[in-house]
Backbone:
């Protein structure tokens, strides 16, 4: 098992190589790394400077100007070269394609970054394995000297390694995909090079189609590689201690990374006041916030801010409300058919937590239960615009025995308690409609979790723990493996 792990370094350096190659070599191959000096010509005019010349947006630029001895103005104008004229449709198309390929190369950089964190985990695991290896050697060499305590240590270390086993298969598939994508990008830029040499001989439509297909495949690949199975939760970081025992707080996972606004909703019933802090730092200091007053009070703590709107459960009903922050208005509300409410089917801590909204890499979800489902957790994918239920899964896990639940990459993870000693106990995979029992510990520092949600943008868990706002990092496991041909 150690051998494939040792090869991971090679994969990442290959990916870095590809990225460099695409971002540096590719543009120069097609001549787009700098502005091309066009054919320059001198134009002599008997007028004042500037007024008559087309702007740079037409591809023309005033280069120099001078006063001739006879008083005339002399301007040197750089006219666009024929082949790069913006009115040449082929050239424009080529530029667009090139931009696409460059965008793809940027995406590959992101991919590289995303896998980096998981690589760290693999490295740690690798050193653990080495320790384990040598200990096992010692153990077999001198069977008498091994104590019960060392055996326990070995067993503990083995337990830490267990998450590795189910992901090793995935590991193979992922690398194959990257190798293939690499070849496709290489092929494509080869074609672009050919075009530059023989403008016009190529079928642009076919080329464009190939770029589109490649782009879609890369996007799918990134989603997949960014996703993974939850194998670990870090130590908690307490961001702030504020508010009552129960509440919720979050950021918008759909917002661009520059938007770090924090939303804060204290209390679990009849609340209407949502505080919006400008940044996480402001939230920590309790400064720079504005207030939104909801037209309908909320129930529970399962709210989520998604793409600029708050989705929450209206008090004493199973109505889902979508409140749009910028327009400060309810844009749509709809009953979640059959969903229990008003403390009929809460999580183990009660608090009107019948309906829990959440967002992951795949979109917006609602977790609740119905009489028909006998109180077992159901998870529904929601259309964020209409609030219609797109698809529903019955997980079979009793909601009242669940502390909280959160969604990562289409998988619902359920804790077995809101109190000290809670662990992530159950996972339901919507992709395969299957479940398994898990044993993922985490430190429940303040012993009463009333909100727990994953944020796919930051890849962290947000929790509200007994009046503390707490974050956890997660380890999502997917590995990239080399098979030696790289
Ligand atoms: C464009 O690429 C060529 C070849 O790699 C290089 O010599 C030149 O300096 C580059 N120009 C700019 C503006 O980067
Ligand atoms: C490339 O990415 C930029 C920024 O993300 C975007 O504005 C542009 O439209 C993209 N170009 C193409 C051809 O997709
Ligand atoms: C790349 O081009 C080669 C030669 O033209 C071809 O055999 C191969 O199938 C192409 N690869 C991909 C992934 O398109
Ligand atoms: C389903 O999702 C889980 C977790 O995201 C992943 O480990 C598993 O490979 C996926 N299964 C299929 C068949 O895609
Ligand atoms: C997010 O909102 C924008 C408009 O505000 C919309 O165009 C886009 O489709 C929304 N995205 C999702 C995933 O709902
Ligand atoms: C909700 O439950 C309370 C008791 O906890 C009850 O008084 C009230 O009538 C219920 N409301 C609805 C709409 O079911
Ligand atoms: C998560 O990991 C990042 C990078 O290692 C670190 O900066 C951050 O403080 C961690 N957050 C938590 C909650 O552990």
Residues:
């Amino acid at each position: 098992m150690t051998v494939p792990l040792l090869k991971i370094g090679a994969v990442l350096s290959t990916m870095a190589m590809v990225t460099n190659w695409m971002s540096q070599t590719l543009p120069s191959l097609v001549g787009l790394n700098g502005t091309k000096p066009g054919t320059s010509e001198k134009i002599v005019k008997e007028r004042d400077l500037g007024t008559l010349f087309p702007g740079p947006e037409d591809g023309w630029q005033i280069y120099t100007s001078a006063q001739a001895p006879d008083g005339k103005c002399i301007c040197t104008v750089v006219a666009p070269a024929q082949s790069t004229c913006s009115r040449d449709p082929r050239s424009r198309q080529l530029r667009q394609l090139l931009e696409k390929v460059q965008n793809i190369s940027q995406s590959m950089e992101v991919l590289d970054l995303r896998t980096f964190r998981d690589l760290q985990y693999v490295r740690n695991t690798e050193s653990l394995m080495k320790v384990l290896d040598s200990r096992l050697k010692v153990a077999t060499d001198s069977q008498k000297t091994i104590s019960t305590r060392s055996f326990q240590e070995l067993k503990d270390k083995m337990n830490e390694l267990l998450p590795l086993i189910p992901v090793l298969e995935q590991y193979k598939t992922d690398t194959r995909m990257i190798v293939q994508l690499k070849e496709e990008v290489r092929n494509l830029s080869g074609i672009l090079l050919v075009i530059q040499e023989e403008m016009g001989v190529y079928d642009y439509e076919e080329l464009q189609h190939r770029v589109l297909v490649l782009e879609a495949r890369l996007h799918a690949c990134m989603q997949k590689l960014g996703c993974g199975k939850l194998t670990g939760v870090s130590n908690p970081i307490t961001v702030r201690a504020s508010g009552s025992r129960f509440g919720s707080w979050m950021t918008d996972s759909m917002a661009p990374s520059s938007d770090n606004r924090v939303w804060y909703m204290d209390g679990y019933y009849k609340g209407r006041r949502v505080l919006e802090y400008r940044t996480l730092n402001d939230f920590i200091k309790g400064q720079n916030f504005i207030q939104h007053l909801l037209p309908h009070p909320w129930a529970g703590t399962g709210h989520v801010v998604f793409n600029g709107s708050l989705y929450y459960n209206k008090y004493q009903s199973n109505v889902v409300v979508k409140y749009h922050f910028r327009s400060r208005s309810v844009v749509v509300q709809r009953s979640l058919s059959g969903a229990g409410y008003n403390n009929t089917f809460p999580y183990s801590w009660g608090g009107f937590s019948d309906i829990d909204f959440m967002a992951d890499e795949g979109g917006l979800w609602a977790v609740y239960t119905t009489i028909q489902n006998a109180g077992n957790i159901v998870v529904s994918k929601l259309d964020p615009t209409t609030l219609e239920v797109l698809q529903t899964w019955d997980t079979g896990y009793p909601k009242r025995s669940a502390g909280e639940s959160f969604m990562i990459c289409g998988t619902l993870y359920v804790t077995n308690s809101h109190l000290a000693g809670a662990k992530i106990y159950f996972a339901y995979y919507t992709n395969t409609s299957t479940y398994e029992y898990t044993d993922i510990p985490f430190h429940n520092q303040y012993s009463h979790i009333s909100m727990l949600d994953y944020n796919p943008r930051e890849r962290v868990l947000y929790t509200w723990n007994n009046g503390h706002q707490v974050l956890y990092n997660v380890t999502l496991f997917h590995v990239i493996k080399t098979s030696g041909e790289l």
User: Anything to note?
Assistant: Residues 89-141 form the longest helix (53 residues). The helical segments are 2-6, 8-29, 89-141, 148-161, 164-197, 204-226, 280-285. Residues 316, 342 surround 2-acetamido-2-deoxy-beta-D-glucopyranose (ligand 6) (CB under 6 Å).
